[in-house]
Design brief:
This protein is globular. The strands form four sheets. It has a four-stranded antiparallel β-sheet, with no helix packed on it. By secondary structure, it is mainly beta. The longest helix is centred in the middle third of the chain and has 5 residues, at 110-114. Helix content is 2%, strand content 43%. It has one helix at 110-114, and strands at 13-19, 29-35, 42-49, 54-62, 73-75, 78-82, 88-92, 97-100, 117-123, 126-133, 138-144, 151-158, 174-180, 189-194, 197-202, 207-213. It contains one helix and 16 strands. 26% of the residues are buried. It has two domains: 8-101, Thrombin, subunit H (Beta Barrel); 106-230, no CATH class. InterPro entries: At3g26010-like. This is F-box protein.
Length: 242
């Protein structure tokens, strides 16, 4: 069992993130972000290394209170967290430093960003920020440039084009679960959730597919979401005991 041997009385764990790439190493790291016992605005980071079976503590750090600590994303040896404003902060696992990521989203989308829900996700070496405007059922997918100094618009998705055969009600809530980037555009897919349905959207031909129908389950409630982005996890094919 993983545990930190440090005394953490009076602190709260805000998020746990997995840093693992089986194509590079069978070992993984677990990043635990917690409050400090003397300030609710000060944070510490503890890192568990499976290679040495040890914990190491870093801090203290100051971060905006609205940072989404529970949704840390691993990309290029860093754990990234996003704010509702689209700002990114990253913890460098090699250096033990916490910094604000340079290269903000374009200022021209400021009004759109203010009305959108933000999702930070990684797939196949690509880091994405997705902006979901629920009231209009419109989603834009932005990708971090390879040089890490800015974003470019990768996809636009109009969820109003969902076929009538799926019986989607107007004004229905939407939750983005994952983005899957394949080796080619033909293999890239958005996975999202509408009330009672888990669906896939194929970017290359703008088609929809029903993956899981939850409408006959006991926990289904019309108009409500059964799964959020924090409840969905990527499957990692590996023989390592993670």
């Amino acid at each position: 069992m993983l545990y930190s041997d440090e005394k953490n009385a009076g602190t709260t764990v805000l998020g746990l993130s997995l840093a693992f790439d089986p194509s590079k190493s069978p070992y993984y790291k677990v990043v635990c972000l917690r409050t400090t016992e003397y300030s609710m605005y000060s944070y510490q980071i503890e890192v568990y290394d499976s290679k040495t079976c040890t914990w190491k503590r870093w801090g203290d750090f100051v971060l905006p209170y609205d940072t989404r600590f529970c949704n840390g994303v691993y990309w290029k040896n860093c754990i990234h967290w996003i704010r509702p404003t689209g700002e990114l902060y990253h913890f460098n696992l090699q250096k033990g430093t916490l910094e604000k990521r340079t290269g903000a989203l374009p200022s021209s989308i400021g009004e759109y960003l203010a009305r959108s829900e933000t999702f930070l996700m990684e797939s196949n070496g690509h880091l994405h920020v997705m902006l979901l405007l629920s009231e209009a059922k419109f989603l834009s997918v932005w990708e971090m440039r390879a040089d890490k100094y800015g974003w470019f618009l990768k996809y636009n998705v109009d969820l109003n084009t969902i076929p009538a055969a799926f019986s989607v009600m107007s004004g229905q809530a939407v939750s983005v679960l994952d983005i899957i980037r394949g080796e080619s555009e033909y293999d890239s897919t958005l996975v999202f959730h509408l009330s009672g349905m888990i669906m896939a959207y194929r970017f290359y031909n703008k088609s929809f597919e029903l993956l899981v129908d939850l409408r006959m389950e006991e926990f289904y409630r019309p108009g409500s979401l059964q799964i959020g982005c924090s409840d969905a996890y990527q499957f990692i094919e590996t023989l390592a005991p993670v």
